[in-house]
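Not sure how to ask, but would you mind making up any protein sequence you like and the C-alpha cells describing how it folds?
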Amino acid sequence: MKSKNFIFVVFSIALSVSTALAQSNLSSPQQIQTTSAQRVSEIILKNLSQARQKSEIPREQREQAYVKLLEGQRYFWMFFKTRSQAARAQNARLASQSLQKAIELNPNLSEAYTALADLTRHTPPYEITTNEAITLAEIAVKIQPNNFGGHQILAQLYTVKSNLNHGILDPIFTQKAVKEWQEIARLDQRNAEAHAFLSEFYARTRKNDERIKSLKNWLASAPPLNNGFYGRVFQGENLSPESASVKLGAALIQAGQTTQAVEILSRAVADEPSNTEVVELLLEALEKADANTSAMAVQALQQALYSNPENTKLIEALAQIKSRTGKPAPKK
C-alpha cells in the first residue's frame, strides 16, 4: 500500500512539473519568439562552420532540406494569415524549427536563410531580431549573390537603420542600403521601388546626376501593384510613373536642365491636368525657359485646359508662354 502511495505521489509531482513547464513555454508569444531568436544565432554559427567545410551533400539530404524549406514557408504563410497571438507564436516557432532544420541538412541552401531572415525580422523583440535577420540575409547573398529576396531584406533593413526619412542620415547604413538597392536594380532593371529609393538616397546625399538617372529609370519601370515598403517609409507617396515625373521634373529644374524639365512636366500636365503640384513646377521651369522651350509646352497645356477649363494655373502658364512667343493667350 505504501509503495502504491509513493508511486502516486511521484506521478503527481511529475505531472505538476510537466504542466508548469508547458505553461511556461506557452506563457507568451514574446517569450517563444525570443528563445527562437537565440536559437537562430546558435544555428548561424553552427551552419557557417559546416558550410566552410565544402563537403558534398548527398542528394537525398538536399531533397530533405528542400522539403523542410517548403514546410517552413507554409508555417510562415500561416503566421501572417492568423489573427490569434497564440497561433501566430505557434506558427512562428514551427516555421523557425523547419527552416533551421533545412539549414542543418543543407548549409548551402540560401533560400532557407532568406526565409528565416524574413521570419526573424517579423518577430519581437525587434532590437534583437533585426540584427539576426541582417546576419541571415547576409549569409544568403554570400552563398548565392543573385538571391533577390536576401538583397531585398538587406535593402529594407539597412534603409530603416539609415534614418532616410527620420533626421540625420547614418553614413554607414546609407552606403549599405544604396549598395543593396543597386543589387536589386541589377537583378530587376525595371524595379520601380529600387530606383525610387536610390533617387531618395541620392537626393539626400546631393548626388543630383545619379538622382536624375535613377528617376529616369523609375519612370521607365513597370508600375508595381502596390506601394510596398516605399509607401510605409514615405507615407502618402506612391511608386506611380506620375510620381516619378514630378520628382524628375523638380530634379531637372534644380540641375538647370530646363528644356528636359519642361518636356517631362508638359507630358505630366497633359496626363494629370488637375495636379496643381505639376502645374506649379511647370510654371517654375517656364520662368527659366527661352521662347523655343516655352513653345514646347503649348500643346500639352492647351490639351490639359480643354479637360479642365477652370484651372487658373493652366491659364497662367499659357499666358506666360504667350508673353514669350507672341501667341494669343486663352480667354478666362
